[in-house]
Amino acid sequence: MRKIIIAGNWKMNNTISQAQDLIAALIKNGGDMHKVEVIVAPPFTALRSVYDILGQSSVHVAAQNLFWEESGAYTGEVSPMMVKEAGCKWVIIGHSERRQIFGETDETVNKRTAAALGSELKPIVCIGETLEERDAGQTFDVLHRQLDGGLKGLTEENMAKITIAYEPVWAIGTGKTATPAQAQEAHEKIRAKLSSMFGAGVAEKVRILYGGSMKPANALELLSLPDVDGGLIGGASLKAHDFVDIIKAGIEAEKL
Asked: Does domain 5-255 have CATH number 3.20.20.70?
């Protein structure tokens, strides 16, 4: 059985003091968070302070990105070991905003993923189509291309450490959400593609998160779908009570 992951991607939000306040509220109100796998991804500046506050909590810390080199003249970049030493066990790679705004490609996603694995970090590899691509009927071609490119050269053993996040780009920050049927169809196709790449046994174990404006109102319905194994949460993760409600929905979905 695939344990549900609820991951909060804070993006470029929260100073160190704001991050500390948010984590304190999460710990205070989170209840039985250990029943699902909870991850928070603060900005780089707040990683260590968040890790320190979490202490023995079951909540894990993720970085929002990393570079594929260990060190060198790469101004503004952060290496895998820097991320790991800051307390991270996870790292988000290839988020749609990284692809659209900062020019990430399937090739750079692949390099970052391999570098993360080499430093014993667990990658959350993001894939997803734009509205134009969906309207053109290219959704599954795009997802397959991103999986082929982003996971190129990886082994079955590597896949045991990788989580996929499906982000319908048209549903991020727009107020739109994929219908449960659309979400399930995409996740099912992703799992089928992983099966063709790495075998059915591997595909059945890989967790696939939904990353398109999950919120308390729709979380339980989405998390109850057979191929949705959690959520990559954006805006709702910045409010402790909303994030806690989504965690509770994950706990409820685990019982189904």
From this structure: yes
Confidence of residue 171 (pLDDT cuts 50, 70, 90): confident
Q: How far apart are CA 115 and CA 94, in angstroms?
A: 13
Of residues 44 and 256, the one with the higher pLDDT is 44
pLDDT bin (cut points 50, 70, 90) of residue 64 is: very high
**Taking the domains of the chain in order of start, what are their residue ranges?**
5-255
Name the residue among 252, 247, 228 with its Cα closest to residue 164. Answer: 228
Residue 56: is it exposed, middle or buried by C-beta count within 10 angstroms (0-12/13-18/19+)?
exposed
Select which of 95, 97, 104, 187 is catalytic: 95
pLDDT for 120-131, tens place per residue? Answer: 999 999 999 998
pLDDT at 22: 97
Q: Is 167 a catalytic residue?
A: yes
Residue 72, token pair as written in the block: 């060198």
Active site residue 37: no
- Considering 37, 104, 133, 167, which one is annotated as catalytic? 167
